[in-house]
Design brief:
Largest sheet: 4 strands, antiparallel
Strand order of the largest sheet: 1-2-4-3
Number of strands: 4
Number of domains: 1
Helix content: 40-55%
Shape: globular
Number of helices: 4
Radius of gyration: 17 Å
Order of helices and strands: HHHEEHEE
């Protein structure tokens, strides 16, 4: 039974990784498209949302020149409806993200995917379970 659960956890982690990669790839393609349109002199418009499962995951933030992340940087990585369900706190070298209420499997998966995309992880510790994202960007 435990090996089945381990396999399921591994598969879930892979699906989350793929969703984050697809989301980032989509964002990069939109950026390249905007640059090409700018070079061609075509007005740039916002792309319509893509109705796929990967598009429902929170966006993976693009790397910036800064090496440190703040609570606000992490908070802004989540859609408003998810952000409202989470609390954010700095602790040492990490930003701790805790749910304020039950998330449900779909919201949990979205948050886990976004956190993994930022180099973070989920810490399962009963009532003290939380997500943590390193302040230092990789």
């Amino acid at each position: 039974m435990s090996t089945d659960k381990e396999k399921l956890n591994q598969l879930t982690a892979k699906v989350d990784e793929l969703a984050a990669i697809l989301n980032k790839t989509s964002q990069e393609l939109h950026s390249v498209s905007a640059q090409l349109k700018a070079l061609a002199g075509t007005p740039v418009s916002q792309p319509p949302p893509v109705p796929t499962q990967a598009a429902t995951a929170p966006p993976v933030p693009h790397e910036t020149g800064s090496k440190q992340r703040s609570v606000d940087d992490i908070r802004m990585s989540f859609p408003e409806e998810l952000e409202a369900r989470l609390s954010f706190e700095e602790k040492g070298d990490y930003i701790i993200i805790k749910p304020k209420q039950f998330l449900g499997s779909e919201n949990f998966a979205k948050i886990a995917s976004a956190v993994r995309g930022m180099g973070g992880e989920y810490i399962s510790a009963g009532k003290d379970s939380h997500f943590r994202v390193p302040k230092q960007k990789a």
